[in-house]
What we know:
Elements: E1 2-6, E2 9-12, E3 17-24, E4 31-38, E5 45-51, E6 57-59, E7 67-71, E8 76-81, E9 90-98, E10 113-114, E11 118-123
Parallel strand pairs: 2-11
Antiparallel strand pairs: 1-3, 3-8, 4-5, 4-9, 5-6, 7-8, 9-10, 9-11
Amino acid sequence: VQLQASGGGLVQAGGSLRLSCAASGRTLSRYVMGWFRQAPGKEREFVAAISWNDYSTYYLDSVKGRFTIYRDAKNTVYLQMNSLKPEDTAVYYCGAQFTRGGRRWSLGDDYDYWGQGTLVTVSS
């Protein structure tokens, strides 16, 4: 699976951005698609994930109510980010995890494929 992330940019606090992650190379019916982020000097952090098959979702507590992960009918996963805060500033990565027992949606090491990052900068 090849993943291409896009949509990052500079936005003021309180603003919105939508990230996209386009997948190719394989059907995604047995995959979980996730968004992670890494701020300067910090470890990679789970943000949100969606099951391609049944649309179920899972979020980091601090983004609940502000971020929404969803997918289209073809091959793209989106992360709609509203009410952005300066602490949301990070490089955002999308990943694909083949569904297998015992794997966790929130664990980056359980993902099989990654896209390149896209930088989100939220100014105060």
